[in-house]
Amino acid sequence: MQRLIAVIIVISPVLLGMYGIKQMRDTFFGYLNTPYPLLWVQFLAGVIAFLVGLFLIGSFIFYRDKKRNKVQTRFTENNK
Questions:
Q1: 77: confidence class by pLDDT, cuts 50, 70, 90
Q2: Measured between alpha carbons, how far is 17 from 72 in angstroms, rounded to an integer?
Q3: Measured between alpha carbons, how far is 60 from 9 in angstroms, rounded to an integer?
Q4: Please, is 49 exposed, middle or buried when counting C-beta atoms within 10 Å of its C-beta (0-12, 13-18, 19+)?
Q5: What is the pLDDT of residues 23-51, one digit of tens each?
């Protein structure tokens, strides 16, 4: 059960990024989806969703590498 929860947590930012890319693609081709009143609002929502998903994936990878001491010394806490 814990592995299933972990997979869901890891997959959710990927799905958010995919949703953002889809919204930007639909805007590029001029297809307006239901909850958005204007194309530029849809594109902005897509960019925000993509960047949030990218940030969550990147921060997860950075946290994991920092825990395993695989980052540069300037990113460690005790480099005074």
A1: confident
A2: 27
A3: 11
A4: buried
A5: 999 999 999 999 999 999 999 999 999 99
List, as one string, the DSSP characters of 15-58. HHHHHHHHHHHHHHTT---TT-SSHHHHHHHHHHHHHHHHHHHH
State the CB neighbour count (10 A cutoff) for residue 75.
10
Structure tokens at 20: 């953002």
Name the token pair of 42.
């849809």
Q: Please give the angle made by the CA atoms of 49, 32 and 54, to the nearest 5 degrees.
A: 15
The model carries a pTM of: 0.85
Helix axis angle, 2-28 relative to 39-67, nearest 10°?
A: 140
**24 within 8 A of 47, measured Cβ to Cβ:** yes
